[in-house]
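Reopening closed ticket. The problem is back. First fold of the pair:
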Amino acid sequence: MRTFDLAPLYRSTVGFDRLFSLLDQGAGPDGPVASYPPYNIEKTGDTSYRISVAVAGFTEDDLSIEVKEQTLTIRGEKVATREAGTAEYLHQGIAARAFERRFQLADYVFVKGAALQHGLLHVDLVREIPEAMKPRQIAINASGDAPRAIEGRAAKKAA
């Protein structure tokens, strides 16, 4: 029997959770691989998600968020200041290195907004399925009448 580790897919995609849950049923949970900066992906509603990235020490000017071709890219780069060059640290444990984190977005998943609060960058996402893709109810005609056209005009008979 062959087993597959789906953890990398969970860590870098948003909106595919139902598919991965079906594929992952019965497999034991694996711990997340440590990476910089740490982040969470949470489902906040039926069609809404939130990515939270720990960016302690970064300001809004140091961060950029870009969506291109269904890929969400979050970049962080500290702008060097004069004070940082003259500081003498006995221990420096707060990382301030540049980073780039990419997330693949499912179809119809869009960025709703972003906020920086208490050292966490929150990116809110929403899945907006077009009306044409949503399921619809079809009425059943119980009488012996001819079937009605559901959409548009009834097809003309060929002569």
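Second fold of the pair, where the issue appears:
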Amino acid sequence: MRIGIVKHLNARPLTWGFEQNSEHQVVPENPSLLKDYLLRGLVDVGLISSIECLRNSDVLSVSMKVGVCASQQVRSIKFFKNKKENYPPYRILTDNGSRTSMALVRVLVHNDSGQLPEVSPTDPKIIKQEISIGRGSHMLFGDNALFAEWDPEVYEVKDLAEWWYETTGTSFIFALWASKKPLELPDSFYEDSLKYGLTHIEEIIEKESRLPSDLVRTYLTQELHYEITESDRKGFELFGKYCNDLGIL
């Protein structure tokens, strides 16, 4: 089985079982590109941006049992609001790794200000350069957000999951497993990989040498969760409604 896996730390518990199973061929990439791989038949299943599951529901089978989810903090998806420039910004440079996050920041800024900003998917290296000189408002995703640096005199940094929870009272699903119809695998296929990952969580933590172990453990076991809850489902439905109403879908 060719399995498209998200290459960032936030997905490790979901994908660890597949990564450790030599029967599978894993293809690591950003969730935004994995959707394209899936539709082109380059992978059989993929962990893709949740908004792409909404956009492509007619051609994709989606498991609603496990995913990358957050209740009140996600840490790895950040909006850098420039305090020295007009708000809301006309355009936000957005990390091109996650299409869900691109849409979410637009929804949240619209709910906050009444205006829908444009977004420009951008190489995160360029975004980091812009942040370093204090120009513009931006969004970073995944490991790029985890390791971001900024001047607090210039930027107010907002965690998108926390902002979503404050706005809606629901949690959020960032990525889901999907396959191209007619292929539809049982939910247990994905759940078993997660169970393996959670059972071997200390191995995952040990492999991550860029951050303190305690922080990684908190991030993967408390701030993120992977079994989809009723609050996640409600948040997913609400996000779809917002996106549809704003023409983002």
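Update: turned out to be a display glitch only; the data is intact. The chain has two domains: 2-69+173-228, 77-168. The chain has a mean pLDDT of 93. Please close again.
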